[in-house]
Automatic annotation (TrEMBL):
<feature type="transmembrane region" description="Helical">
    <location>
        <begin position="82"/>
        <end position="101"/>
    </location>
</feature>
<dbReference type="InterPro" id="IPR029016">
    <property type="entry name" value="GAF-like_dom_sf"/>
</dbReference>
<keyword id="KW-0067">ATP-binding</keyword>
<feature type="transmembrane region" description="Helical">
    <location>
        <begin position="113"/>
        <end position="139"/>
    </location>
</feature>
<keyword id="KW-0472">Membrane</keyword>
<dbReference type="Pfam" id="PF02518">
    <property type="entry name" value="HATPase_c"/>
</dbReference>
<feature type="transmembrane region" description="Helical">
    <location>
        <begin position="42"/>
        <end position="62"/>
    </location>
</feature>
<keyword id="KW-0597">Phosphoprotein</keyword>
<keyword id="KW-0547">Nucleotide-binding</keyword>
<feature type="transmembrane region" description="Helical">
    <location>
        <begin position="178"/>
        <end position="208"/>
    </location>
</feature>
<dbReference type="InterPro" id="IPR050640">
    <property type="entry name" value="Bact_2-comp_sensor_kinase"/>
</dbReference>
<protein>
    <recommendedName>
        <fullName>histidine kinase</fullName>
        <ecNumber>2.7.13.3</ecNumber>
    </recommendedName>
</protein>
<feature type="transmembrane region" description="Helical">
    <location>
        <begin position="151"/>
        <end position="171"/>
    </location>
</feature>
<keyword id="KW-0812">Transmembrane</keyword>
<feature type="transmembrane region" description="Helical">
    <location>
        <begin position="6"/>
        <end position="22"/>
    </location>
</feature>
<keyword id="KW-1133">Transmembrane helix</keyword>
<dbReference type="Pfam" id="PF07694">
    <property type="entry name" value="5TM-5TMR_LYT"/>
</dbReference>
Amino acid sequence: MKYLTIILFERLGLLLVFAFVLTRIPGFKSLLYREYSKRMSFVHACMFGLFGIAATITGIVIEGDSVVNREFVWFVEDDQMAVSSSLVAIVIAGLLGGPVVGLGAGLIAGTHLFYLGGIGVLANSLVNPLTGLLAGLTAQFFSNERVISPWKALFIGVFPPILQMQLLLIFEPHSDDIISLVNTIGLPLVLSNSIAIAIFTAMISIVLREQENEAALATKQALTIAEEALPFLKKDSSRDMASGIANLLYDRLKLAAVSVTNEKEVLAHKGLGEDHHREGDQIITALSHQAIYSKQMQIAHSRAEIQCNHINCPLEAAIIIPIMDANDATGLIKFYFRKAQHIRPVELMLAQGLGQLISNQLNTIATEKMKTHIRDAELRNLQAQINPHFLFNTLHLIAALFRKDPEKARHITVNLAHYMRFNIGLVSSSLIHLEKECQHVKAYIEIAQTRFSSQLQIFFSEPDGISEVFIPPSTIQPLVENSVQHGLKDATTGGVVKVTIQKLDTFIQVSVSDNGCGFPANILNQAGHQLLESDKEGGAGLYNVNQRLIHLLGDTARLHIRNLPSSGSEVYFNIPYKD
């Protein structure tokens, strides 16, 4: 019995080598992830059936109480019995593939045993499909586990050899030879089969964990590189972007070389072959054109496929990754390797993931730039608008002044010209010097003060040294106009508007206040922050100014609005500033 056990374990070594090769087959993953289909069930049943046949062929032959020495079992005499580990393959088939795969594999292995013949042929043939079916039904109790743990497999593996012994005794209950054989092979089969099943499930768990660790590592690395690549992707110059990406990938991935191209030429190359893979070289590789045309990753497995004409080029393989912009491939990233054997599944997974992430980031950046351009155009359009009523009223004022005070009329005409020139020129800039904005406000104040000289006074104060401070154009003037038209709309005399600009610790505060009626309580908290349905209280002007301040200077520059304790209101904002 001891000798038989040792021989069975020796033969199991060959079986486990075969099992290791089996785990490397790409289709084997579908079993681990429970991806069943009729076609794959048939393929796996055949695969494990052949595994069972291989276990039988590498088994041993028992004749009486002795072992017949054979390297492989190709035939069995009538007075002999084939003893093998075919049940190991059938149990694994049932545990991984379910009842259908287990039964199919058992039928194939059982049919082979039936044709081999020998003692106990019916029991040996029947135990395989029966074991496969029972193992498949058992696996349904562990459906939440992709691979049953080795300890559970060890326990399950005890029962198929016991079932085989029982069938042998059932089919030939009065044979002393069968009883003697059962006593001889029973314990060795139980030990070898259960341990082999446990080892095989442990092997599968290790392979699965290895694959998942590689996938997790590749995903983490791809995400990290994609994040680090973001500053380069935002560069306006395509060559600067390509150079930054090439250097980053070369440093992080330890590749033989990295190239970044557009649709026509090489933009950057880093690594081996820099002496002849140069910036500006035209794309001639057939696989590169195919990657751009098909929008699919391509792999060059030889120097011939790379199509490098340099005799001593050290690069022999490459992964060519298309970079997508919307639905078009606008460029390529090439990972170069010294040997084709260096291209492992993890490199392919990493390359594909990086290509998708970088393409997504480019699309996101393009969308953000488009939104920024649209928003900037909208803001400049708002800034450039001239109130027609203000223009007509000022022209009427100038016409009246020419009869009464020609000098004053000329002065107001100059201020109106300055005011209009400033508004027309707004579309050329998003930010201007605060000093210029103050000149614009003073021009408006001169006109408004002349128009409403009997109703109000406008005071303006500003500090020195504000020439280097930037502000969105036409920001203060709408606040002054809002006070004149809405805050003091009911004032017939004694109206006062104060425009105050003062330096504080880390910012400059701009404040416009009046002694008018103030904001109605129902819109005080909404003014400037929401576009009000009615513009009777100056809602649109305040909202537009607030949006320009937030988008161009940040949230800290937003408008603050409050009613003053005595009367009137104050609107102010802060401009970030450092000496």
